[in-house]
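Q: Structure tokens for this one, please.
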Amino acid sequence: MSMGEMTEIFKNVREASRSLMTCGTDKINQVLLMLADATENNTQQILAANADDLSRMDESNPKYDRLKLTEERIHGIAEGIRNVALLPSPVGRVIGETVRPNGMRLTKVSVPFGVIGIIYEARPNVTLDVFSLCLKSGNACVLKGGSDADSTNRAIVEIIRNVLVQCFFNPDIVVLLPAGHESTAELLNARGWVDLLIPRGGRGLIDFVRENATIPVIETGAGVCHTYFDEYGDIEKGKAIIKNAKTRRVSVCNALDCLLVHWERLKDLPELCKALADFSVTIYADTASYEALKGSYPSELLQRSTEQDYGTEYLDYKISVCASTSLQGAVDHITKYGSGHSECIITEKAEVADYFTRAVDAACVYVNVPTAFTDGGEFGLGAEIGISTQKLHARGPMGLEELNTYKWVIRGEGQTRK
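A: Here is the predicted structure, written as tokens:
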């Protein structure tokens, strides 16, 4: 596709986005509810396209689980769309209001960004999640999916655009770009057409987008998540939390990558890790942890760690384990190797938990709860467009409110400035 053709696509999306500025919430909700029904009614069409994508990927690839759709997952996605329809619209929300001494009334009002671009890898569920959130928040969206999920994404976008036409909406409110690298380059430099770019994927994708984009970027996705089992941790809570955080779904960004254990609790490490063996989780352990696990954890799944094991987002049945001599040591480890996504402490001592929540710099900090809960749906946001790991504008699960910016509306009675 030529540069001129890409520019025409961006222009059409920009023009379509303007039609949303005066569109009522009831009409938007109607589209979302119809889309949820259409998604379920076209389940077999979506699964057939998904099977085509899956046939090109090795099942041992950690991305395979992210790529795979089932009837149950499609139903869950449709329910997520319905949940978004039930949420209040963030558009036009009064954030603040004040009256100046001269009588001028200043109102800070939330408004859509306009056009949001999303670059994502083998996650076809993102296509529907992103569209529903963008539409409800008054934004058009430009989607750039990966080649691994191209057949599924195209089937889904066709369903979306058909629903938009049925509801008399401009179908260019959503556009899926070609899967090649050329369209990525064009999107990264779509200044004047795209207002905000959100990459969803691994560290490599996020770094590439941040380093090459000429439009504003919100970093999301990469999660190097830790759980620290403190000196005062409850072993039953610890066992459940560690198992859930690591094995619930290994291919997601909130999965556990590194377990830190207080030196005084190394004797409990075999019990804490016992359930991981049932899932054939490979443990990369430092010297102290290795000695504590040797003889109790399967030898074929137990390896000595190296420096590169820390700070690794495994997205697989793998985990690093490291002993810590103190609470501060655990915090220092997280500071050095974490990605600012989600971190957890297991402790029964309130002052320890309070210190951890203050000292750890991450979007989501948990006390006696697994990092698996870092999710827009679990946070009551309906769905999410991504998990922001930066500090500017949005942090953590990004829902409807985070897809709006704001403007000032100033009303007066003819006041003039001296």
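A few notes: The mean pLDDT is 93. The chain is about 40% helix and 20% strand.
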